[in-house]
Specification:
It is a single chain. The chain contains eight helices and seven strands, in the order E-H-E-H-E-H-E-H-E-H-E-H-H-H-E. The chain is an alpha/beta fold. The chain has a single domain, classed as NAD(P)-binding Rossmann-like Domain (Rossmann fold, 3-Layer(aba) Sandwich). It has a seven-stranded parallel sheet, sandwiched between helices. Strand 4, helix 4 and strand 5 form a beta-alpha-beta unit. Helix 3 runs parallel beside helix 4 and helix 4 runs parallel beside helix 5. The longest helix has 29 residues. The mean pLDDT is 94.
């Protein structure tokens, strides 16, 4: 039986680890070729190799998604390698300005006073917005331009967060960036709806990825995360990838401009 993405090609930013990597492997199992984009060259190349082991074409490209030039080059490379782009997952993101994917979680000193909007450096705000919001916009439009130019329908999936809906104290820049991704998704979906390119978002709840590793090492924060998650556990990257697969496939052909929360019941009540 043919896979749900058989013969298609995808671009996945943030594909070296976490949700992006899970999407790359899940899509490959459904017959999709994948261009893996990330800043982490070692783990990005490993993800591309894992996709090839599943029998699909794949390569890695180092991309800073906050750069317009690099997003355009990424989209051009996908067209060169695959001849088409059917799907994009914009999963590249950071939790804070000091976050480095793959780095050991920083130890939090005792009695550490977490910064607020009033005390946090402006450059921290700008860094997170540049990556999490402007970067997603630049990825989306680079991909959408080529989908439209080649005249084929496509699906763009943006990775937002439950923080798009629930403000997180001490993480203003992250919350605002993810709320921005939600609105970006809606506006772009409306603007290009008649082209056949769909744009949707996923709002993951607390998920077991490198981005939450620091919190998992903090008993109090771990308790807080589980307390607001009715299912009482962290999500798995594959569970987010399964939703991305639905949005990437023809099964969601009449869905655009939506955000679907995969959150263990966080918004059930």
């Amino acid at each position: 039986m043919a896979g749900r993405l058989e013969g298609r090609a995808a671009v996945i930013t943030g594909g070296a680890s976490g949700i992006g990597r899970a999407c790359a492997l899940r899509f490959a199992r459904e017959g999709c070729d994948v261009l893996v984009a990330d800043l982490d060259e070692s783990r990005g190349a490993e993800t591309a190799a894992a996709v090839r082991e599943l029998g699909r074409k794949s390569s890695f490209m180092r991309v800073d998604t906050s750069s317009e030039v690099e997003n355009e080059a990424m989209a051009d490379r996908a067209i060169t390698e695959f001849g088409r782009i059917d799907v994009a997952v914009a999963a590249a993101g950071i939790s804070n300005a000091l976050y480095v994917s793959g780095a050991a979680p920083m130890a939090v000193p005792a009695n550490f006073e977490r910064p607020t909007i009033l005390t946090k450096p402006v450059e921290y705000w700008e860094k997170v917005l540049n990556v999490n919001l402007t970067g997603v916009m630049l990825t989306d439009r680079a991909i959408a331009r080529r989908m439209i130019a080649t005249g084929r329908p496509g699906s763009i999936v943006n990775i937002a967060s439950v923080a798009a809906k629930v403000p997180l104290a001490h993480a203003a820049e992250y919350s605002v960036s993810k709320a921005g991704v939600w609105m970006l998704t809606k506006v772009l979906a409306l603007e290009i709806a008649r082209t056949g390119v769909r744009v949707n978002a996923i709002g993951p709840g607390y998920t077991d990825t490198p981005m939450t590793a620091y919190a998992q090492n903090d008993e109090e924060r771990m308790r807080d995360m589980l307390a607001v998650t009715p299912m009482g556990r962290l999500g798995e990257p594959d569970e987010i990838a399964n939703m991305a697969l639905f949005l990437a496939s023809d099964e969601s052909s009449y869905v655009t401009g939506e955000i679907l929360f995969v959150d263990g019941g966080m918004f059930a009540g």
